[in-house]
Backbone:
């Protein structure tokens, strides 16, 4: 089975890789490096976020006085930390997108191109 990618130079035929080719790529050093880079980013970032989230929940459950501390006006520490949860989610997403665009996507594209061209 073949598929066709259309680009500005016209159709570029690409063939569907076999299961054996996928298995070979899975064992390749390039794919292992791609997985390693992903894991080195995702696991620490996940642990950091879960620690931050769990800290917020525990503070909310057990540190009522701290969370009720007024920072300015009717704004208290709990509200600011809660908004910080949203902000940190957006920051982590932006950092991951930048990391993926710079580190992961080019490597994945090279592996995919190699596989679809039959050089795997």
Residues:
């Amino acid at each position: 089975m073949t598929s066709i990618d259309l680009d500005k130079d016209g159709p570029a035929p690409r063939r569907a890789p076999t299961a054996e080719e996928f298995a070979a790529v899975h064992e390749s050093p390039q794919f292992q490096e791609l997985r390693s880079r992903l894991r080195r980013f995702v696991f620490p970032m996940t642990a950091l976020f879960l620690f931050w989230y769990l800290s917020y929940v525990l503070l909310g459950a057990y540190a009522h006085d701290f969370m009720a501390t007024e920072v300015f006006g009717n704004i208290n520490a709990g509200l600011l930390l809660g908004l910080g949860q949203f902000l940190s989610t957006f920051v982590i997403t932006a950092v991951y997108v930048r990391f993926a665009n710079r580190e992961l996507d080019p490597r994945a594209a090279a592996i995919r191109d190699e596989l679809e061209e039959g050089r795997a």
User: Anything to note?
Assistant: The longest strand covers residues 2-7. The chain has a mean pLDDT of 89. The chain has four helices and four strands.
